[in-house]
Amino acid sequence: MSDLKNKNIIVTGASSGLGRAAAIKLSYEGARVCLVGRSEAKLKETYSLMKEREHFLLAVDLCDFKEYEIFFNNIFSSFGPLDGLVHFAGISALVPLKVMKLKKLQEILNINLLAFFELTKYFSKDKYFNKLGASIIGASSVSSLRGAPALSGYSCSKAALDGAVRSLACELATKKIRINSIAPGFVKTPMGDEVLKTLSPEATDKILSAHPLGIGTPEDIANLVTFLLGDSARWITGSTICIDGGFSISS
Hints:
- The protein is 42% helix and 15% strand.
- It has helices at residues 17-28, 40-48, 68-79, 102-123, 152-172, 190-197, 201-209, 218-229; strands spanning 8-12, 32-37, 56-59, 84-87, 134-139, 177-184, 240-243.
- It has a seven-stranded parallel sheet with strand order 3-2-1-4-5-6-7, with helices on both faces.
- Strand 1 (8-12), helix 1 (17-28) and strand 2 form a beta-alpha-beta unit.
- Helix 1 crosses helix 8.
């Protein structure tokens, strides 16, 4: 039996990619999932692939920070105490420094970093989370650990998230809330496919060959998420865990 049975978990970015895979996996592990994304239609697509339970859809713009209290109240009234939060909502952008505009950098930071801060702040309010213990996961990237051209905006948003996780782990431990980040390598998702479309065949081959174990799947990431949310990971907090097929150690 899974130790996620009947646990209430929020998954952002659940309309596609890693968020969708995590939501589906969690439903089959017995969790009740709040699917968060901008498109209700795409969230319904995810829902149709999940094991039937009392799941909840919430179509919101996570960069509309003034609405957070409203939608956390909605989630709590539907679910009760929250056991987990997974933030997969985000954007990737290949933008060289010479053409990077502050507006674009702010857009990246808003969803990749600041939304994670606000989600964590509201999730950890005493009225929302399960006092017996809870787990938060932020989506980082191997780009926070290993540089690449034209990814400075994206990379800095993920590196900042990793740094925040280490300090937040110290702050939230007294509430029995664990918080970690995961750093995937290149994974076969719609977002990943869009990145490849912007690259030359040579650059694409270089990315593929840099992963000794090959390209990952969303299900690979969902398996790690499931573990970190569960009680089996009760002694893990403040960590950034690479899941990258060896990319971060390859030359």
